[in-house]
Design brief:
Blueprint (H helix, E strand, L loop, with lengths): L1 E2 L14 E2 L10 H24 L5 H20 L12 H22 L5 H8 L2 H11 L7 H19 L9 H24 L5 H15 L4 H10 L2 H26 L4 H7 L2 H13 L6 H17 L4 H9 L5 H19 L1
Antiparallel strand pairs: 1-2
Helix pairs in contact: 1-10, 1-12, 2-3, 2-8, 2-9, 2-10, 3-7, 3-8, 4-6, 5-7, 5-11, 6-13, 8-10, 12-13
Length: 346
């Protein structure tokens, strides 16, 4: 891109164009990388936690319990520093992703996992990063970087290998598949809606607003939650508290923080690491030994996510060729412009 302005006394000649080259994308900070790692690990642990408490809680009450615990835990951190509330139209995206992500996504996923095996669920849910990349390219104008598309395809193949190695065959009807796909769509749209909110509010605030909206939506399951908590064993109740604090309050906040630093498409690609991480956690906690396909699929997912971080050669060459600006070059440029201005006046 180039800018040309008419020459005046002491100004650059029209023949001299100030060339503006796109700056290379800033590398994500160490804190941002830590946020991504925390999100992946805690979301992976949620699959193990849901599997553990699932027999004691129905999908709706489990969602309400998680959100209620998360609302209290995150509210303790957010409320003291909250000085401004959203106003007017600012509530629209917050209400939208609160209803769809914190409410609808969790209920749909919990219900689907009662009908689908873990491998099939993981493969269907991981349609979400692809949808986010497409929506981010269209809605957020992030474009469609070649390596993002290639890496996403490779990572999805890894997820398919993990599903193949689950050793189970799904006996669920079409309802389970549709619920899982619905959860993926709701998560994808919500991630796009949350991105603009993070321009004004912190990650914790944006997450807490959504959690509160989701909690209100799930209030019809209050009676069922109370009765199930009374009947549930203590480990199941503690598991519910864990799901509320860690995979919900903390992980959704670290996701929002990372989303404020990284493009939605690239961040979504990192969630391909969740199924492989789930396998490792299940191996360590539940002594579920992974299959060879599961291990290979996890490695393929790592490779795919790594590919999404690559940049085009042209961009790298442009960034490398751009000379650094020094005081000497600025003085030389200023002197050249001044000399040409004198010639114009003469």
């Amino acid at each position: 891109m180039s800018l040309t302005t008419p020459a005046g006394p002491g100004q650059p000649s029209p023949s001299l164009q100030q060339r503006i080259t796109p700056a290379p994308a800033a590398s994500i900070s160490k804190l941002g990388i830590a946020a991504v790692v925390v999100t992946v690990v805690l979301w992976a642990s949620a699959f193990v936690g849901i599997r553990a408490v699932g027999p004691s809680f129905s999908p709706g009450s489990l969602t309400l319990g998680r959100l209620a615990v998360a609302a209290v835990a995150l509210g303790i951190v957010v409320l003291p520093g909250l000085k401004v509330l959203p106003s007017g139209r600012e509530w629209l995206p917050i209400v939208a992703y609160g209803v769809m992500w914190f409410g609808g996504y969790n209920v749909a996923l919990n219900a689907a996992e009662h009908m689908l095996d873990a491998g099939t669920s993981a493969m269907l849910i991981n349609v979400s990063p692809i949808l986010i990349a497409v929506l981010a390219g269209v809605v957020l104008k992030e474009g469609f970087p070649r390596w993002l598309l290639i890496g996403s395809g490779v990572a999805f193949c890894g997820v398919a290998m993990i599903a193949l190695g689950s050793g189970q065959r799904s006996t669920a009807d079409v309802a389970g598949v549709l619920l899982c796909l619905l959860a993926a769509v709701l998560a994808s749209v919500s991630a796009i809606l949350q991105k603009p909110v993070l321009r004004k509010f912190t990650a914790g605030q944006a997450t807490w607003f959504g959690i509160m909206v989701g909690t209100v939506c799930c209030l019809p399951w209050t009676g069922q939650l109370i009765s199930e908590v009374q009947a549930a064993p203590l480990p199941a109740t503690l598991g519910l508290v864990y799901l509320g604090i860690f995979p919900t309050a903390i992980a959704f906040t670290t996701w929002a923080y990372a989303l404020s630093l990284i493009s939605a498409g690239k961040l979504a690609a990192t969630t391909y690491l969740v199924p492989g991480t789930t396998i490792l956690i299940s191996w360590a906690v539940l002594q579920e030994v992974p299959t060879i396909w599961g291990l290979i699929g996890g490695v393929v997912c790592l490779i795919g996510v790594g590919l999404t971080r690559r940049t085009a050669k042209a961009t790298r060459r442009t960034a490398k060729a751009k000379p650094p600006t020094t005081k000497a070059t600025r003085r030389t440029s200023k002197g050249t412009h001044a000399a040409e201005g004198d010639k114009k006046q003469a």
